[in-house]
Model the fold of this input.
Amino acid sequence: MTQLSRFTINTVSRKLNSINAEVTLANAKPFPCHTLLSQYQFKKQFVKILPNGDIQGGYSKMIISLIDFSFVRSLTAGCYTIKSPPPYDPPSLFLLELFRYIDGYQSMDKFLVVLRDKDRGRAYRSYAGIKNLVPTKGTFSNFKARLGPDLYNEIFHILVSIFHKLQMITFNILAHDGTLYPTRARYKGCIYFTSQCKGLEANDLLVRVKKQIMYRINNLHKVRLDKEIRFKIKCPSDRVEEEPKRKKIEAVALKLSHLKGKPSLDQP
Done:
């Protein structure tokens, strides 16, 4: 098996057969509500990769076709009681929120317009088990409030553990900003994470920053204030000697702008 062959759809699908069963067994608490406004059911489907490398149906279809999200129902069972009004199936709401992030809808309002659309929202509704009643914006807010941040994050931790078992992440290094939006590592341009990263030498950084700021202030007719100023420092890792072009990393980036309104009395 080559280094990359373990990440093919067929290989991942076979591994997920046992992973899904393991996660289901570990989260088998029965859900107290028997009447639900939606009903999620895992149905394993074939995932087709198009000639250009895209996934037919997009990432949302790939995820819903491979990973069984029934564990969300068991994990959130303690937040509901048998006397609760008929709720939406928890996996339905969690998946819809996940689809929104995956497909780049930064606004819930815009996503709900698509979700309610007869044609454009059909796939989303089908994946999440929504038949008649489409949830409102308030439904998602109430769902998050009912679960609380700790439990909501616990669901994501289970997803992370699934990817760990698939060897897609190793935990040797994982840089993120806590959301599903695209992000960067802490130091732009850095390709190594070692114990030496705990202490970064920036002996003349403040001097360089001050010099650049003063130059722009004194030459407003020559420079654009909105142009970003970037400062790089030497990478502390010994391994950079292997790649001479990677000896510096971006440590600080800033830009100046005109002050709007009057400065406050305590502003220097």
Notes: The chain has two domains: 5-165, 195-254. Residues 5-165 form one domain.
